[in-house]
Amino acid sequence: MAVKKVYGTPACPATMRVLASMLEHGLDFEFIYVDLKAGDHMKESFLSLSPFGQVPVFQDDQDLTLFESRAIMRFISHHYPKPGKEQVYEAPKEQGIVAAWIDVEDHQFDPPASKLRTELLEKPLNGMSADKQVVAEAEANLARVLDVYEERLKDSKYLGGDKFTSADLTHLPNLYYLMKTPVKRLFDERARVSGWCRDLLARSAWAKVVDMVEKI
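-> structure tokens emitted (216 positions)
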């Protein structure tokens, strides 16, 4: 019997995004570890699944293979809706709002968040010092994004509307990492953003992702 598969590295934010989506939807799957340090992602067997050599990769039980974490997340939320807890809206207007905020995360939130994650967490782990100028610029850019989020959250509990959707889920990997850094203060200083973060990070599916990451 064919099973769903996720290829990736648990601590990789893109892989975490897909794992969160899978677990939120209650899907059974086989996780296949890709050792990036050993170069597994550049082997022909993996490149045949992900031509750019990036994790994660998702295979469903119907001969579909997808790469790019946000594309996988969108597919899961549309194809495997969880009754009563759907992460999509049937109405095009409402779903259009969700789609817009997914793109905001991709194009506005992720760039400064990823730079801060690299400078404040990844570099020190590898014996390097953070570039203070890069950190300062990324913090300023992230603060501007969070100001927009604070305003948006005046109107709805979540970014995409009044229910948790993929527009919120897609933020979880970077939120998880940034809460471990001094940048946490940027979230704490904004009451609505701070509450939104606590809500997201407390989700039971996310706890399972964190458990997978911290066991590696």
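The chain has ten helices and four strands.
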